[in-house]
């Protein structure tokens, strides 16, 4: 996907009057985002200073092991964290230049869905089993666009056709259990794009699907992204799945982005030992449950993140400085960011 700055020109006419317009193509600015969970055992520091941007027409993959903070980052952007136990002690999330973290809920409701939409990690189980799928898609138009029953159902059929559900017209009244996993995921995508959002966050959109269906779903997301010039955030623990679709990859570890780069550059030459470990694990991606297993050890307990670089207990490059000073995410080559005291050695070694 090439990055373009045609902004929202390709969006549906009903969105032309949106109160939000990207500034120089920029949709999202996430700066120094922190999220912590106040638990009985102490404070779990799930997000520890995340920074990234997303432009119209761009696909950013957020990659990391389980527990690295991918979903919490998405939930913070969507404004759906339960607070408490969650708290956002510092940081900023701007959408088209407007701060979301302090935006009143009645205003934010108009962002969540019509502007920034999300496909949830447990999407396959989040369809309501007792309502027909068409009715559930149509509900988006009734709620947000005030459409009547027959118009909203007509829109639902059009969307089901767009996400390539065969026989959409005759299946609009079918129930979720009458669809395969891949088709249910298409229905979730249809619901997420129903209001023509400028930003779509897809949290592990293919995890529960077999490899062929995974490829079809990624292909569909890529098509929709190009067609609508959406900013797409693809969350995954599986480097193989996003490689063909993403423009940039942000690698997360213990609630921080430790490397960010153009997909091709990152594959060619990682600048962070953690990314290098992830790439080394790629040959095992075809073995279910074995992804990312080439790196020894476990991610840190978020109640007690080690001082210095949080990756140091697992890093074969670690030196004394790594146990004392936390490396900042810095530009280590044009367009390349890495948070490692020895980025140059990793990059050129
Ligand atoms: N409500 C909560 N209370 C306490 N801790 C939480 C809560 N929600 C999330 N966390 C913690 O925050 C950390 C980050 O969670 P998150 O769901 O973002 O991980 P993830 O990167 O999406 O992982 P996965 O790949 O398994 O989906 C985890 O350690 C998780 O246990
Ligand atoms: S800062 Fe040190 S411990 Fe952290 S990734 Fe770099 S070399 Fe490894
Ligand atoms: Mg998750």
From TrEMBL:
Residues 1-20 are annotated as: Disordered. This is ATP-binding cassette domain-containing protein. Residues 28-279 form the ABC transporter domain. PROSITE patterns: ABC_TRANSPORTER_1 (PS00211), ABC_TRANSPORTER_2 (PS50893). Keywords: ATP-binding, Cell membrane, Membrane, Nucleotide-binding, Transport. GO terms for biological process: peptide transport. It comes from Arsenicicoccus cauae. It is a peripheral membrane protein. The lineage of its organism: Bacteria, Bacillati, Actinomycetota, Actinomycetes, Micrococcales. GO terms for cellular component: plasma membrane. InterPro entries: AAA+_ATPase, ABC_Ni/Peptide_Import, ABC_transporter-like_ATP-bd, ABC_transporter-like_CS, Oligopep_ABC_C, P-loop_NTPase. Its main location: membrane. GO terms for molecular function: ATP binding; ATP hydrolysis activity. It is found in: Cell membrane. SUPFAM superfamilies: P-loop containing nucleoside triphosphate hydrolases. Residues 1-11 have a biased composition (Basic residues). The keyword Cell cycle does not apply. The keyword ATP-binding applies. Belongs to the ABC transporter superfamily.
């Amino acid at each position: 996907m090439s990055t373009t700055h045609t902004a929202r020109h390709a969006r549906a006419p009903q969105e032309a009057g949106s109160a939000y317009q990207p500034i120089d193509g920029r949709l999202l600015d996430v700066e120094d985002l922190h999220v912590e969970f106040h638990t009985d055992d102490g404070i779990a520091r799930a997000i520890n200073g995340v920074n990234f941007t997303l432009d119209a027409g761009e696909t950013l993959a957020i990659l990391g092991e389980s527990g690295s903070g991918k979903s919490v980052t998405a939930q913070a952007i969507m404004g759906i964290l339960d607070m408490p136990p969650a708290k956002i002690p510092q940081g900023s999330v701007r959408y088209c230049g407007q701060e979301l973290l302090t935006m009143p809920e009645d205003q934010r409701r108009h962002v969540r869905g019509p502007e920034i939409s999300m496909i949830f990690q447990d999407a396959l189980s989040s369809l309501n089993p007792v309502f027909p799928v068409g009715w559930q898609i149509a509900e988006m138009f009734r709620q947000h666009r005030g459409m009547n029953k027959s118009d909203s159902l007509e829109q639902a059929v059009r969307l089901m056709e767009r996400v390539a559900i065969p026989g959409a017209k005759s299946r609009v009244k079918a129930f979720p259990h009458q669809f395969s996993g891949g088709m249910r995921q298409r229905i979730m995508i249809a619901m997420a794009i129903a209001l023509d959002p400028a930003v779509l966050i897809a949290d592990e959109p293919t995890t529960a699907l077999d490899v062929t269906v995974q490829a079809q779903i990624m292909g569909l997301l890529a098509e929709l992204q190009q067609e609508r010039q959406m900013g797409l955030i693809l969350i995954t623990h599986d480097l193989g799945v996003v490689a063909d679709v993403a423009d940039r990859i942000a690698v997360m570890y213990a609630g921080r982005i430790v490397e960010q780069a153009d997909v091709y550059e990152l594959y060619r030459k990682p600048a962070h030992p953690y990314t290098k470990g992830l790439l080394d694990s790629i040959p095992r991606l075809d073995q279910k449950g074995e992804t990312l297993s080439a790196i020894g050890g476990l991610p840190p307990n978020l109640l007690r993140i080690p001082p210095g670089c949080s990756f140091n207990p697992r890093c074969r490059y670690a030196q004394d400085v790594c146990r004392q000073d936390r490396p900042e995410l810095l530009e280590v080559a044009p367009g390349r960011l890495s948070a490692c005291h020895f980025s140059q050695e990793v990059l050129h070694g």
